[in-house]
Amino acid sequence: MYKYFSSAYKFGSIAGALSVIAFVALSFLYPDPTNLNLVFGYVISPIAIFLAIKFFKEYSNNGYLSFAEGMSLGFVTYMLEAILSLIGIWIVLQIHPNLFEQIKASKLDVLATSKDSIVSQVGLESYGMTLESVKNMVSLDIALNDGLWKIIPGLFFTIIISIILRRNPN
């Protein structure tokens, strides 16, 4: 079992740690680091998935890779990245509640300044529900959102990378 997932553990852990580090670093530069951290995740996730699958294929499986193996490795990689990112961001927000309040205020400000545009697109009722949900937001919501946005693109990238790197014995 370790043979199958050793590269996934390594690269998933590195990607999760880098995601938390990016969140902290971006929090010093921007009042709301969540959006840029999501963009960082879109860059680091496919790299981590590719490296985990490629290392398994080349160094543990004699150059062969089935689609199922690629999907399994990718799944472990992006889930580990998402879980570590979720836990790390939640801990950072628990330790620094001012950062959470700053992020919440930034999101409320965006809703207030874009009210007319949002209402014209989704209606006043949806805008009101969104405003209420942001007002009731807790730090776990921010961490969960980040984790989910590691999983969704991670699945997409895993499918593509597994197809590209697939090579079965003749």
UniProtKB/TrEMBL annotation:
Protein name: DUF4199 domain-containing protein
Residues that span the membrane, as ranges: 12-30, 36-53, 73-93, 147-165
Transmembrane listed as a keyword: yes
Keyword Chloroplast: no
Superkingdom of origin: Bacteria
Family matches, as InterPro entries: DUF4199
Listed Pfam families: DUF4199
Alphabetically ordered keywords of this record: Membrane, Transmembrane, Transmembrane helix
